[in-house]
Amino acid sequence: MSDSGPLLEVRDVVKRFPGVVALDGVSLDVRAGEVHALVGENGAGKSTLIKVITGVYRPDEGSLAFAGRPVAFASAVDAQQTGIQAIHQEIGLVPSMSVARNLLLGREPRTRLGLIDQSEMNRAAGAALESYGVDIDVRRPLRSLSVGAQQMVALARAVSVDARLVVMDEPTSSLEPREVATLFGVIDRLRGDGIAVVYVSHRLDELYRICDRVTVLRDGRMVHRGPLAELERLKLVSLMLGREMSQVREEGLTKFSGGHDADTAPVVEARGLSSRHLLDEVSVSIRPGEVVGLGGLLGAGRTETAKAIAGALQLDGGRVTVAGAPIRRGSPGAAVRAGVAMLPEDRKSEGIIPGLSVRENIALAALPRLSRGGVVAESRIDRIVDVFMKRLRIKATGPGQRVGELSGGNQQKVLLARWLATEPKVLLLDEPTRGIDVGAKAEVQALVDELAEEGLGVLLISSDLEELVEGSDRVVLLRDGAVVGELHGDDVTENAVMRAIAGQTEEDSDG
């Protein structure tokens, strides 16, 4: 880390929105060659501060300086041209274009006639990705890749330009362990080259692994800044939550209680689910009041299994029954009517409708149930929305606020509210705490417990091993689209999950 003065200085920045002060006198400084953690609960102001730094928002008060000179970015392009690049949690690339075109968009190599040189573009893109440990066909459309692979493309694009500061917003949220190791290698290389990194993550292990200093935000204010290694983990969490360390220590860092009652007949049974190249005779059952975890690496078939149960994946074989009654394959509507609700991994493209209000987003799936003769009483919608906004503690200026203006954790709660309003029998949760802060994560985990205790069946997909192990009564393990094992009760441990995923027996690991 450089001992010179700050590369980026943010001083006493204030940013207001109607009815909300998102940033209230926030200051931040980042040095060249430093990896600086920016942490806080959803709604603490992290996303707003990032948008100020990257030129999306202009501060109402306060100032910015970059490389010792005052700056006032007129746009995100202005910030990029100054040397600030961002890798956002939601991947901002063009799904229909090829990987190579996305990587070199705006910088495509040209022939003498001024046309795009496809072969040179593919060669350059392949070489760039290979240098980051990514081996994919750059001619493929970006949308055909997993979310994790798309995020690695976004990373490669951001660091391939002449950046002096890179903002990484939850960059590992969809990466498998091998890709995370690759990312950390890239960050170490950036540090060595004197490039600054602002790193936003809710995974404490990551923060302590790669970050030099930390700035903690809470309710739009800076509450701490200093070397991360000198800050105890529980103290960091207590600063983010605004709670005493003794309270955090007593409650722990996760909120799952475990041990749900699951002695009754399955509410959902999936048998022999098969889809070419995706699923191979996958079977899973979920009982009322039971949380069943799906374990496996990215590409193992976890999301595909959930989508198959929800009717959102075309199957070559297999069947799904809900409360003993079969539901039509490949029909999301039939699944919803039968009582299946799914919270998707990618809330931006498959979940929320950012231009609609909180009220409209929550009511969307429940409209058929709320209608009488094709007419929906506004008062009934208002009651439903009010109940779930209070129950899930959704932070918004009101039900009329646009969902796209909310923090990631509150967007996730809106999605949960939407599906809970349909009164489902089973809830399929695909990475429900991905990219949300410690406080919102604890609330979602506590809600999962509460729903299970009320008799709802839950399927839990999580890349966070601790969350998967602590939150599940059983774990079904997938590898390459097939079930490779199942763990119950006390056998559900992080080591057992990792061994099964790796195709390793206990004897193998001992040897």
Features:
nucleotide-binding, repeat, 6-stranded mixed beta sheet, Sugar ABC transporter ATP-binding protein, 511 residues, Rossmann fold, alpha/beta, globular
CATH superfamily placement of the largest domain: P-loop containing nucleotide triphosphate hydrolases
The helix tally amounts to: 20
CATH fold topology of the largest domain: Rossmann fold
What structural category do the secondary elements indicate?
A: alpha/beta
The number of distinct structural domains comes to 3
Notes on the structure:
One of its GO terms (molecular function) is ATP binding. Residues 8-244, 248-505 form the ABC transporter domain. The chain has 511 residues and is α/β, with parallel strands linked by helices. It contains 20 helices and 22 strands. The strands form five sheets. Strands 6-7-8-3-9-10 form a six-stranded mixed β-sheet, sandwiched between helices. Strands 16-19-20-13-21-22 form a six-stranded mixed β-sheet, with helices on both faces. Strands 2-1-4-5 form a four-stranded antiparallel β-sheet, with helices on one face. Strand 1 and strand 2 form a beta hairpin. Helix 8 packs across helix 9. The radius of gyration is 23 Å and the shape is globular. The protein starts with 5 loop residues before the first strand and ends with a helix. Residues 505-511 have low confidence and may be disordered.
